[in-house]
Write a sequence for this structure.
C-alpha cells in the first residue's frame, strides 16, 4: 500500500440523520479504515461500528481516540463542540474536524454571534441583548411589534418566538427570564423582525479558507403550510433556486468571507463547518443565525450531492489546505423528507417497529435518525425524527417526487411527515 492509499480509522460523534449521512459518505472513501460512530443509531450500524461512548464527555472521547489509534475525529452535533471535545481531542494529539469550544460559541451563544457581526459589519437584524427583565421589556415597548425574542444559548431551536404583537413579545421575555429555557434564557436577545425567504448555506472552513456547499432550504415547522411548532427540521432540499449566482457572490463578499476573516483576526481560526442561516430581505441577504456545525436535515441532501471524497475535504480543513482540494457537486437536485414520530416535537412514543425500509432503499437513501436495533434484529423507532428519505433528481421537482415516492412503502405507528417539502 502506498502512502496515499493508507487508511485511517475515524471516530464520528453523534446519532442523528446528519451523522448517518456523514458516516455513509466517510465509509465510501477508499482511505476510510474502521469507522466508529458514538453513539450512532440503527442506520449507522450499516456503515461502521457503533460504540457506547458519552459523545459530550471530552476526556472519554479523547481517551477512546488515543487508545484505539483514531486518525481523525469528526464531531456532528453542537453539544460536544460547546463542551470542548475538539479541544480535548487535539490536546491528546489526534486530528479533529470541528471547532474548539470558543469557536463553537458562534452557534452556542446568540449574543456572541450578534456581537461578532456587529464588529465585522456583517448584515443582520438590529438587536438588543439583555440580562435584566425590566430593561428587556422597556426595549420591547420602545421598538414595538413585530419583534423576535430569543433565549441565548442552546435551546434546541425552541427558544425563538416571532412575536407579531407587543403583548406576545412581552410574554416571551417574561417566559425566558422565568426559566422556560433553563440557563439558555438568562440572557435574552430581542431582534428586529426580518422578512424574506430563508436559505441555508453551509461552508467548509480550514481557519483561513472557506468553501461554500450548495445552497439548501430547510422546513422548520412541524406541519404543512409552515404551521405548528418549530422543529429541528422536517425536510430539506438543495440547491435552492432562490440562491442565484449573483446572491452567492454578494453573500461571499458581505457575509461569508467577512465572518471567517473576523474570526481569524480575533485569534480564533475556525476549522469545521459554518452554518449560515440567511434571510433574503429586500435590503439584501442578512444573517438570521450561525451554527458551528452541519445542519440536520440539510446535510442529508447535501452529502448525497457531493461528488468529492469527504475525507479529503475534512483532512484539508484540519491541515489548512482547503484551497488545494476540489469540492465537486453532482448536477441536478436532492430532496430529503423527514418521517417523524406523531406528536414530535412536543410529546411522542418510541419503540415501534418500522416496515418498508428495504423497498424504499431501492430508489432512495434512507438515512436513520431516531432508530435503534431491536433484540430480534428489527429496526425500531427511538426518537422524534426517525428517518430521512433522500432522493436525487435531474430537477428539484423530480427529486421531490422521487423522495415522496420512495417514502411511500415505509410505515410505523403514528408516523408523521409533511407533504409539502420543497413546495412552500
Ligand atoms: P434561529 O434559531 O435564530 O434560527 O431562529 C429560528 C427561526 O426563527 C428562523 O429560522 C427564522 O424563521 C425565525 N427568525 C429568527 N430570527 C428572525 C428575525 N430576526 N426575523 C425574522 N425571523 C426570524
Ligand atoms: N435544520 C436546522 C439545523 O440543523 O440547525
Amino acid at each position: 500500500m502506498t502512502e496515499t492509499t493508507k487508511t485511517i480509522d475515524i471516530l464520528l460523534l453523534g446519532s442523528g440523520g446528519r451523522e448517518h449521512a456523514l458516516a455513509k459518505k466517510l465509509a465510501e472513501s477508499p482511505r476510510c479504515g474502521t469507522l466508529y460512530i458514538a453513539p450512532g443509531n440503527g442506520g449507522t450500524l450499516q456503515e461502521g461500528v457503533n460504540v457506547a461512548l458519552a459523545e459530550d464527555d471530552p476526556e472519554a472521547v479523547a481517551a477512546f481516540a488515543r487508545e484505539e489509534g483514531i486518525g481523525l475525529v469528526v464531531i456532528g452535533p453542537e453539544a460536544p463542540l460547546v463542551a470542548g471535545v475538539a479541544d480535548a481531542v487535539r490536546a491528546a494529539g489526534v486530528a479533529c474536524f470541528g471547532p474548539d469550544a470558543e469557536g463553537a460559541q458562534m452557534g452556542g451563544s446568540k449574543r456572541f454571534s450578534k456581537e461578532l457581526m456587529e464588529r465585522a459589519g456583517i448584515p443582520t437584524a438590529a438587536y438588543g441583548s439583555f440580562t435584566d427583565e425590566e430593561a428587556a421589556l422597556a426595549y420591547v415597548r420602545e421598538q414595538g411589534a413585530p419583534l423576535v425574542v430569543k433565549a441565548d444559548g442552546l435551546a434546541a431551536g425552541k427558544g425563538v418566538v416571532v412575536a407579531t404583537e407587543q403583548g406576545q413579545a412581552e410574554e416571551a421575555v417574561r417566559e425566558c427570564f422565568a426559566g422556560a429555557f433553563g440557563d439558555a434564557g438568562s440572557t435574552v436577545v430581542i431582534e428586529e423582525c426580518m422578512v424574506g425567504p430563508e436559505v441555508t448555506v453551509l461552508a467548509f472552513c480550514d481557519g483561513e479558507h472557506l468553501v461554500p456547499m450548495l445552497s439548501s432550504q430547510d422546513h422548520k415547522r412541524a406541519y404543512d403550510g409552515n404551521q405548528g411548532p418549530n422543529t429541528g427540521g422536517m425536510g430539506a432540499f438543495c440547491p435552492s433556486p432562490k440562491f442565484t449566482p449573483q446572491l452567492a457572490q454578494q453573500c461571499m463578499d458581505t457575509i461569508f468571507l467577512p465572518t471567517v476573516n473576523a474570526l481569524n483576526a480575533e485569534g480564533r481560526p475556525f476549522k469545521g463547518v459554518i452554518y449560515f442561516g440567511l434571510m433574503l430581505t429586500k435590503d439584501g441577504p442578512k444573517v438570521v443565525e450561525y451554527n458551528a456545525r452541519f445542519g440536520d436535515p440539510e446535510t442529508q441532501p447535501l452529502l448525497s450531492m457531493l461528488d468529492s471524497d469527504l475525507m479529503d475535504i475534512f483532512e484539508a480543513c484540519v491541515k489548512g489546505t482547503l484551497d488545494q482540494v476540489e469540492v465537486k457537486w453532482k448536477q441536478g437536485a436532492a430532496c430529503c423528507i423527514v418521517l417523524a414520530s406523531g406528536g414530535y416535537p412536543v410529546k411522542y412514543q418510541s419503540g415501534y417497529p418500522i416496515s418498508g425500509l428495504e423497498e424504499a432503499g431501492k430508489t432512495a437513501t434512507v438515512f436513520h435518525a431516531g432508530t435503534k436495533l431491536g433484540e430480534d434484529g428489527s429496526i425500531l423507532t427511538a426518537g422524534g425524527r426517525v428517518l430521512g428519505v433522500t432522493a436525487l433528481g435531474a430537477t428539484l421537482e423530480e427529486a421531490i417526487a422521487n423522495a415522496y415516492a420512495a417514502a411511500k412503502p415505509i410505515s410505523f405507528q403514528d408516523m408523521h411527515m409533511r407533504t409539502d417539502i420543497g413546495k412552500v
Summary: Residues 245-265 form the longest helix (21 residues). The pocket of glycine (ligand 2) is lined by residues 218, 232-233, 291, 295-296, 298 (CB under 6 Å).
